[in-house]
Structures are given as C-alpha cells and as structure tokens.
Design a protein that fits this description.
Layout lengths: L2 H13 L1 E4 L2 E4 L14 H12 L15 E9 L7 H12 L5 E8 L5 E5 L5 E6 L8 H14 L4 E7 L49 H7 L5 E7 L6 H6 L4 E6 L6 E2 L4 E2 L3 H4 L7 H16 L10 E6 L3 H12 L3 H5 L19 E2 H9 L4 H10 E6 L2 E2 L2 E2 L9 E2 L10 H9 L8
Parallel strand pairs: 3-4, 3-7, 7-8, 8-9
Antiparallel strand pairs: 1-2, 4-5, 5-6, 9-12, 10-11, 12-14, 13-17, 15-16
Helix pairs in contact: 1-2, 4-5, 9-12
C-alpha cells in the first residue's frame, strides 16, 4: 500500500467509531481484506463519514436537535428547597450537551411556582408564572404536563418527578424520625415523605402529598415515554404497578435517594445523565449506568450509596401473573412467614415495609422460581446497586431492583395494611 493511501486509511480508522452522550456509531471497513484502495475512493469515504456523524471532544460541536421534551417537575415547597439551586445548575450543565428540550417546573419555599425552559447555552427562559398552589397535588402535576405539551409540542415526552417520597405508603402512615448519620459529614441522610409535600398549598385544601393511587388516576395513560422518579423508595412493585399504563419505561430506586448537594450527591447527577434522556431504551440504560457510576465514584464511603432499576412497564402485568401464580390464596401463610435475612430496603427512618420482591417470593416458595426469574429478566431492563446504602448492606444475589410489601398478620390493624389492600392493585396477587 502506498504511503498516501496508508495515511487515508489511518484517518478513516480514527473516524470509524464515535461515541457521545446519547449516541454510538461505528462504520467498519474490511481493511484486512483490502489490498488496495484508490486515492479517489478514500477521500470520498472520509467525507461520507464526516457528513454522517462528527466525533469531537470540543464542547462547541453543534448538536442536532430532536423533537423530545423532558419536564423536570420539582415539588420543592418543603425541606428539599435546599437542593433546588444545585439541581438546576446541574440541569444547565447537562443541557449544553443535550439534543432535546428541558423544561422545569419548580415550586420553592420562598416563591410561587414558575415554569421555564433551559436553553442549550444554559440560560433560563421563563414560560409561565403561577399563583401559590399545591405542587404536591396530582392534579397540579397533570395540569403542568398538559401545559408543557401545549407550549413545547414534541414527538416524544419524558417526565422526571423530583421531590420527597415514601414510596407507596399513604400520607397517614407513621414513620420514625430520621436519624442523622455522621462520618466527617455533617448531615448525610435521605429525606423521605410520600411523593412530594407542599408546606404552602395556597387555597388548595387537598392533602399536601401525592398518594400513588391518586397520581395514577390523575395522569393520562401513555403520557410519557419514560417517568423517572428522582425521589426515595419509588422502586416498589406496588407503586410502579399502579403506574404501569402511564409510560413505556419507569425508572426508580428501591432504597432512599441521597440529598446532599454540598457533596455532589443529590439524586440524579443531571450534568452527566441528562444528555441520555432524549433517545430510547438503550439511552435510558446508559442513563442508569451513568447514574450508578456517579455514586460508585464518590470519595466518601457513606456517599457511595445508590440503587436504580429501569422497568419495562409493559411487562409489569406479566410480573403480576408470575407472582399471582405463587401467592394466590396464600395470604395467611405469607402473614406468618419468616422474614429474617431477607434483603430489605428500609432504613431506620422508614416504615419496615420494603423487602426485595424476588427474595421474598423465593423465600416463601422455598427455592428459586424459574418462571418468576424469567419474567423479572423481561421486566427489569437494567438494575444496579452499590454494595451498601449508607448503613444498609445490599447483597447482589438478593437484589432484584424492586421492593415488595409483606403483609404480615401482626400489621393487620395498621394504616399501611388497610391502604395496601383497599387502594393498591398489586394486592390482588393474594386473591
């Protein structure tokens, strides 16, 4: 091969594979089988590759926009207010490298809610101001979703719910006081409270939190391609099953979520993850991988605390059927089962109701259920966890990515038990 041709081959080889947030492209040339490539063909192939896709480490490289809007719904009229500025700054960093449109609704402690767009340059463009309102009302969330779709119509829509959460537990459930943990860090502990809480709900007289069943009623079916719950404990099968018809994919954590902006450990690391939220299934998997890598890379051990699961919502009915086959008619036996040694996701500041789904069902059956395992593999597209969450150990062999309530007989008189069977469709697995 002549030296001029060799240089062109080297140039094409460098261009053959490109990877940037949200995209991966490879163009393979059978170089081992080529004995000679003409000087006319090589420049043409090079130009073709450059025209199709450009790889560059230069942050100024233009991005091609896509018709995809993601709404970040921040119900922060509560103690999460302290995390707002950090989160918005992270969103602005991520928007620089994103191909879709980022819209933020934020309700803070000291201001009425407003809606704004984050531009590619990281600037805020106000879209709408609101009177003081209850941002923890499911109807408010549903209305904001409608408004965003009208203001910024797009082919695809994603929704991120950012706030407090206590998973599926009802507002009137009793949770113990959060215990502060300290290892050279002043206040590393998750903050939980149902979904959202609004300390200043305006004239709205409804309960200032989002109950799961009410949220499911408020949101239209197929409202989004994905819903990511950037909140605590929403990786519960009960909660996600209620929302199975609302989006194609559901993303959540079975444990709590750290809220420590001072240590770069506050929910989704948007500067890294946001660019992946304007694609499809593969990009969402990459987003989850990026999420878990962020927490794995933390210097302080206590901050290496995170769990995540990407759920194919269309498979949740199949998961219900697999669990129903095993549990149907056995509520009394489940009520007295031995729960010692099961993988749990509740810490000391959470009601003791979050057990690993797979671990619980296999314990009840007395061994691995292959049908359940197969269905879980179809349902959970990606799952990951750090070895521990703060002081809670997570066994990778017991980690399925989803939690599940065990309705023990001793809790029959509790509010949680009543709500579970009266309001959550998943409870029908025992019928």
């Amino acid at each position: 091969m002549e030296s001029g041709e060799s240089k062109w081959i080297d140039a094409i080889t460098k261009l053959a594979c490109c990877e940037t947030p949200g995209f991966y492209f490879c163009f393979y040339l059978p170089l081992s089988k080529m004995k000679r490539i003409s000087n006319q063909l090589i420049p043409a192939l090079t130009l073709l590759l450059l025209a199709f896709y450009s790889c560059s480490n230069n942050d100024e490289t233009p991005l091609t926009s896509v018709s995809y809007t993601t709404l970040v719904y921040m119900a922060a009229d509560n103690s999460m207010d302290s995390e707002v500025e950090y989160t918005i700054a992270e969103l602005k960093k991520g928007a620089v490298h994103s191909v879709g449109t980022v819209i933020v609704y934020v309700d803070r402690m000291d201001a009425s809610p407003h809606l704004f767009k984050i531009t590619r340059s990281g600037e805020e463009v106000l879209l709408k101001n609101y009177e003081e309102e209850n941002s923890a009302d499911p109807q408010t969330l549903a209305r904001v979703v409608r408004e965003v779709k009208e203001l910024e119509p797009a082919h695809k829509f994603g929704l991120i719910v950012w706030s407090h959460s206590m998973g599926w537990l009802p507002y009137y459930a009793n949770a113990s006081t959060a215990r502060l943990l300290s290892r050279n860090i002043t206040s590393v502990f998750p903050r939980t409270r149902y979904i959202g809480i609004d300390a200043h709900p305006g004239n709205n007289t409804s309960v200032p939190v989002m109950e799961i069943d009410q949220l499911a009623d408020a949101l239209p079916d197929h409202v989004a391609e994905y819903i990511w719950f950037d909140v605590c404990l929403m990786g519960s099968v009960e909660a996600l099953y209620e929302l199975r018809n609302k989006s194609d994919y559901l993303i959540a954590s079975p444990t709590e979520v750290l809220a420590e902006a001072d240590y770069n450990a506050s929910g989704i690391p948007y500067s890294k993850v946001l660019p992946y939220l304007f694609g499809g299934k593969e990009e969402l998997m990459q987003a989850c991988q990026t999420y878990i890598k962020h927490y794995q890379s933390m210097k302080q051990g206590i901050l290496r605390s995170a769990t995540i699961a990407l759920v194919d919502a269309s498979q949740l009915d199949g998961l219900f059927d697999a669990a129903h086959t095993i549990l149907s008619g056995h509520l009394a036996e489940v009520g007295t089962m031995d729960i010692s040694g099961l993988q749990v996701y509740h810490t000391q500041n959470v009601s003791q109701v979050f057990f690993d789904l797979k671990d619980m069902i296999n314990r009840f059956k007395g061994g691995t259920d292959t049908a359940l395992e197969a269905q879980l593999n179809r349902t959970i597209l990606y799952k990951a966890a750090t070895p521990s969450f703060v002081n809670l150990k997570i066994n990778p062999d017991q980690y399925s990515g989803l939690s599940m309530y065990i309705p023990l007989s001793k809790w029959q008189d509790s509010n949680e038990y009543s709500y579970y069977f009266q309001s959550l469709a998943w409870s029908d697995v025992y019928k």
